[in-house]
Amino acid sequence: MASLMDNLVEVLEQENTWYEKLVSLSKDKKQAIIRADIAALEDITGQEQDISSELRNLDIRRDAVLKDMADVLGKDMEEMTITKLIGYLDQQKEEQERLSKIRAKLLSSGNEMHEWNMRNQALLQQALEMVEFDLTLFKSMRQAPETANYDKNAYNTGDLLGNSGFDAKQ
Q: What pTM, to 2 d.p., does this model score?
């Protein structure tokens, strides 16, 4: 059981390290969004995908270790969580404390990651709104105003003024 506990703590520490790297990238992403640096955003997104792949591999390893621990403890794997495992370790205070500390670190990193994601999401939404505003502005600058021509039923015909420089007929 001790080697399983060491494996679990090692996996959780590695996960925490990767989450901290994601937080760091999120801070860089904020600056790239503010600067509208598309190249930097592409680079950061690539790095985030690589980290996500690493986290997925660690997730699989963590599940395997938890499954082994559930078998040793005679518990159901479907119900095995880190929190429940901490509760099962009442007799092993040192292991319980070790697992509690890394769980707290992971939760802290996860919460920080969530906060940065929410901030960056708001920044991206504002950037999209600004782009939409600019596009609307450019479209309206190219559109000619409507004339005040009416048909026989007194409805506006919606004719546009010409945008050529001369109205003279030849």
A: 0.73
